[in-house]
Amino acid sequence: MPLSFALPVKAKAVPAALLLLMGVWLLATRADARDAVRRAAPVLVPTIAAFLFWLANTLAHGISLKEFDVMSHILAFLLIAVSFSAPLRPIVLRIGFSASAAVLGLICIEQHYVEGIDRVYGVNNGLWGAIEFGMFILVLSLIATLQALRLELPRGERVLHGVFAILGVYGALLTQSRGPLLSCIPVFVLLVVIQARRTRRWRQAAGVLVAGAVAIGVATTAFHGEVAERFAAVSQEVSTYSEQDTTGAVRERLEMWRNAGMAVGEHPMTGVGLNQFGTYARTRIAEGKAADSIERYDHPHSEYLEWAVTGGLPGLALLLLMFGSTLWFFGRHAMHRDNGVAMPACAGLAVAGMYTLCGLTDNVFYRAMPHSLYFFLVLGLAVYVGRMLGQRATRKAR
């Protein structure tokens, strides 16, 4: 499923449909599935609220239901998530997710070294999708890294996860996406620290952190100096931004954020409507109140501002609730003594952490690819954790 989201194959709808039907069947026939869903409520309920909120927003603003298309997928993923309450083979999930990172990393390597594409972007979204694709690969690479750190797994499998993670991270580096690469660092450190605390192997954790820092430093300076140059350009663009100089990736973001703030001030409670930031910005451009450089953008390059602009302050509050409750749920169980609970919780924490941080400077939900990955993994892993907690509660009762 994660791999299919990043590939332009129409047949990918078939396994999604099968999992959806399986989820409906499990929910209707199995008490343990319903119990797993109840235990995952801190993650599921805010997601249901988001689905209903954006449906109401679309109808209230009289917007075409086509604008609700991507958000409507949430309903499908809520049902697909129930399939994670079935008896699954953990090794298949582990290797499947890690191998997906490797495959996508190899696609990036092929694009860069064979096709000669400077800033790779995958095969599903075109050049505009480079940022989301970089985040997508890093999410799967972090899950692979997590498995590589698990000392209870066979050494051969851990090495395999490590190789898959390296391929994924290197592929993400070739996208030259600053936001995802920066966001990955604190999430990676958090995962290593959690594992160190659980296993009491602090020396090994320090070695992993040092090795990771050296590898990234060498890759970004010795082999791909253009990545370092893109990071160096940030401060220069920020310091020179003005309403008269808005060209450049960072300056354009600042100009979009300025106009997004204006939109929130004008429509604080209702917003301008789902996916309507572009229309609002172009109206301001026509009035001479915004720079022409942002005319091509339909979203403000910040998920937080997106929800605030299009859904008003209630929309922003809902996004904060959705991210916050998800981080709380997975963070609460990440230190569990049982690996069967802690590892999927850590994986969920990695996904939610990446999207929470990347959302500061980019939109992470407006395209189907990153939207699908988030809700498939976060909702599914929440139900999976709920299932494992239910099994342990049953054993204790006996």
UniProtKB/TrEMBL annotation:
UniProt keywords, alphabetically: Membrane, Transmembrane, Transmembrane helix
InterPro entries listed in its UniProt record: O-antigen_ligase-rel_domated, WaaL-like
Keyword Magnesium: no
Residues annotated as transmembrane: 12-28, 40-64, 70-88, 126-146, 158-174, 208-225, 307-330, 342-366, 372-390
Domain O-antigen ligase-related positions: 164-320
Compartmental location: Membrane
Predominant location category: membrane
Highest taxon above the source species: Bacteria
Transmembrane helix recorded as keyword: yes
Protein name: O-antigen ligase-related domain-containing protein
Membrane topology: Multi-pass membrane protein
GO cellular component, one term: membrane
